[in-house]
What does this fold into?
Amino acid sequence: MKDCCTTAIFSHPPMRVFGKHWSPARAGISLLVILVIPMNNFHFSKIIAGVGPTLAKETVLSKVINMVDIFRISLSGGFDDNNKKYIDTIMKLDNSKTIMMETRGSDIRVKNVMDIKVKARQNIEIDYSEYAQEHDKRIFMDASFLHELKVGQVIKFQQSGVVIKIKSSKENLIMCEVIE
It folds into this structure.
């Protein structure tokens, strides 16, 4: 006879479902608890905490470190000094804890301070910048690979749905045309 298990998922804040799939990151979840409850008397649970600027403070982390089984660090912004600081802080307080690295891939961040309104067939420039900039005709992106993009390639901005096509490229400055 097979043992059966029941799985329960709890989150803080309460989880939202997107279509058929749910995503802790998209739902803004900072604490996720997954309980696997076998039909026999054994109870297994794991508490996964997403590490960010607030939780990474040593005073806050020292209060929750004994309650958390796994710490999740997102690498969507790339691996930087903050992520190293998070790991160092966790290891300093308790080096037996598991650290899970979420490696979805780097997000390309737009560094414009103000919104840019665009319409179809409008020309726009994309420039590389690590820092926030103000300009109404140029998009600044933290993407050092801009010079590798080819003429004719299409880029879609996920949040706005804007689609652009590359017309010309010089080093880290790209001339584009808005398609949608």
Observations:
- The longest helix spans residues 81-93.
